[in-house]
Amino acid sequence: MATLSSPAGGNTVTGMTDGTPSTPPTPVRLRGSLDAVPAYVAGKPAAPQAGVTAYKMSSNENPYPPLPSVLDVVREQAAQMNRYPDMGVTALTAALAERLDVPAARISTGPGSVGVLGQIITALCDAGDEVVFAWRSFEAYPILVALAGATAVRVPLTSEARHDLDAMAQAITDRTKVVLVCTPNNPTGPSVRTDELEAFLDRVPDDVLVVLDEAYLEFVTSDDAPDALAIHRARPNVAVLRTFSKAYGLAGLRVGYAVAHEPVAEALRKAAIPFGVNSLAQAAALASLEAFDELDVRVKELVGERARVVAALEEQGWDIPDSDANFVWFGVGERTAELAAACQAAGLTVRPYGTDGVRATIAEPEANDRLLEVLASFPRD
Ligand SMILES: *Cc1c(COP(=O)(O)O)cnc(C)c1O
Q1: CA 31 to centroid of ligand 1, rounded, Å
Q2: PROSITE patterns of this UniProt entry (predicted)?
Q3: How far is it, in rounded angstroms, from Cα 249 to Cα 192?
Q4: With 80 as the cut, is the pLDDT of residue 23 above it?
């Protein structure tokens, strides 16, 4: 006999705003492993306030509006949105292959690099397999791993908010299928160094896939940051993950890709949701590759702003990790909520992480100036 209460006593849909049940409990059997999936906490939108311009510094977006040439292409493409997109993402894949000088068969695209990472985990992990990554790192990692029923192995960052590659090598077991290396690390900023990465890769069993997540590649200026593509070429178990969301300014359209050796890339294509990369995203990504020189001017401006902000913070006495990305990290611990609230009071929405710290995206110069004012008057201990 049907019953209204589920065996686990709990699968209810709750209202979006007040948490009260908006439908009765359901007897439908959801996967138990979903209980282990953390919710993605997205960066909050800018909060308008009387008398000040509000700025969103919470999602590492590119603050510049789309290039007119890219917008034109998207508008043109929109006229055909009654048609399915090119399922093979052929033109973009060919353009990437040429630009990166790799065979097209090594490229697998997806709806954002988060989408591609989902394909990686799906293609490699069965329930109970382990995925090793640094923590804190990108918020989506534990979600994607838990969704696959795999086990997340989080290896704490060093005291300098960098990957502890030695501890990560030690965390690998015979259940480990994938290691994620986020370089530069979101939310703390440092890149791994080439020498430490090579030494780490020498210790990783060759049947474990190492993914170098380079979402912020275009902002990297450290001399000793790795050349991930060269490392990929030299090592059959290394893949590179990239996105059009950050430097290319296409976060809203969702397109990213992996470069992996052919059997892996083919598995990723199999694990992809059909037509996952929509036609506007394909057209915009292609147009953005063509307009890269124009986009790069903006990237250089943001890198210049980062240098200006970091220098001013150091002048104020802040000790912040070296950032190779378009954000800075304040490891303020217990005072995380307090710092986020002080920024918010000044019209700046930043991203607090529990009791670890606050990440602020490098944004418009006026937003960055205001961030510096808030931090100058934030009491430190
Ligand atoms: C923003 C980000 C991504 C990219 O996400 P998309 O799905 O491509 O928008 C991937 N990895 C890291 C570390 C990021 O911060």
Answers
A1: 27
A2: AA_TRANSFER_CLASS_2
A3: 24
A4: no
**Whole-number pLDDT of residue 246:** 97
| Distance set, CA 289 to CA 36, 99, 124, 223 (Å) | 38, 9, 30, 24
Mean pLDDT, residues 45-60:
88
Question: Which residue has the CA at smallest separation from atom 11 of ligand 1?
Answer: 215
**DSSP of 199-265, one letter per residue?**
HHHHHS-TTSEEEEE-TTGGG---TTS--HHHHHHH-TTEEEEEESSSTT--TTT--EEEE--HHHH
C-alpha–C-alpha distance, residues 48 and 75, integer Å: 29
CA–centroid distance, 137 to ligand 1, in Å, is: 11
Query: What is the pLDDT at residue 9?
Result: 40
Domain ranges of the chain: 43-63+292-377, 83-291
pLDDT tops 90 at residue 116? yes
CATH class assigned to 83-291? alpha beta
Fold of 43-63+292-377: Aspartate Aminotransferase, domain 1 (3.90.1150)
Pocket of ligand 1 (CB under 6 A): 60, 112-114, 138, 182, 186, 213, 215, 243, 245-246, 251, 256
